[in-house]
Amino acid sequence: MHKTIWNKTLILLMVMFLLLLAACGGEESSEAEADTEPAEETPDTEEEEAVSLGEASLVTNWFAQPEHGGNYAALEEGFYAEEGIEMSIEPGGPQISATQLVASGKMDFGYTSGEDILNARDKGIPLVAIGAIFQVSPYVLISHADAGVEDFEDLEGMTTITAPGVGYWEYIKKSYELDEVKELSYTGQLSTFIEDPDAVTQGYITSEPYVLDQQGVENNYLRIHDSGFQPYSNVIFTTEDVMEEKPELVKAFMAATVKGWEAYRDDPVKYKEILKEYNPDLTDGLMDFGAKEQEELIFGGDAEEHGFGYMTEERWASLQEQMLDLGIVTNDEDPTNFFTTEFLPMEE
């Protein structure tokens, strides 16, 4: 009898001991959990860093020069990187077609003239202008100072050096009834013009007059814009496919490009070295001259009110009408098919 009571007491004590151990374990576990430091919060990288948009490329319409200064400024300042773009710029040249490179998908963005956008569209190549660097064309027709060329009618009988089939020359010939002109193809060199006192050559108001002055060749020029043919120049373009498949990239590219041009406008001297890296033939004098001459052509006009790169349907429709009238293009298209301002920052 006593043995039975003792066994029951022993079992009861063991159960109480086990319960006590379990309670202590629970407390230690709770303390361990309480002592664990909270995990570090993951930073909101979306706000601090741009989403990577990958690589993108731009091909310009000529060797690096002040007329491309804003894009090189954006590259130098890291504006493209801030937008998440790993950007590269390929300078153009006489044997490089920006429209072909972009149309083929080898490059994402390019520079060309408003005319070339319409020429490409007329051939079924779906290029779209997304911004215009020059509100007023920098193209001029340069003559010798003593040749007596004061207006477009005075070009009759002269030898003109222009790019073959270029729209503004076809317009001027028809509008000013120039029937007796000799035509030579423009090669980018000025030697033929310098040697012929009756020659007239195409050029940029931001470059060739300065180069000729430095060589002691007194010159005069007529602005193409004053003839009545007024396309946008140095148009920034891409393809319909890029716009449809990568709208974030196009928007980011234009945002960085606009910032770059604002930076270049504020201090063009700061970006001389990067321009020289891409074009060692540039001189300080030419870059100073170009930056000064292009200021009003880029930031004046509609850009003064609406911002860099702005374009209107009226200007594009007028250009298309002129090119249709000249028979250069045959496709009468809605202008909103080949230009847009939706990617410019001021449209937000």
UniProtKB/TrEMBL annotation:
Signal peptide: none annotated. Pfam families: NMT1. InterPro entries: NMT1/THI5, SsuA/THI5. Residues 29-50 are annotated as: Disordered. SUPFAM superfamilies: Periplasmic binding protein-like II. Residues 65-269 form the SsuA/THI5-like domain. PANTHER family: 4-AMINO-5-HYDROXYMETHYL-2-METHYLPYRIMIDINE PHOSPHATE SYNTHASE THI11-RELATED, THIAMINE BIOSYNTHESIS PROTEIN HI_0357-RELATED. This is ABC transporter substrate-binding protein. It comes from Gracilibacillus caseinilyticus.
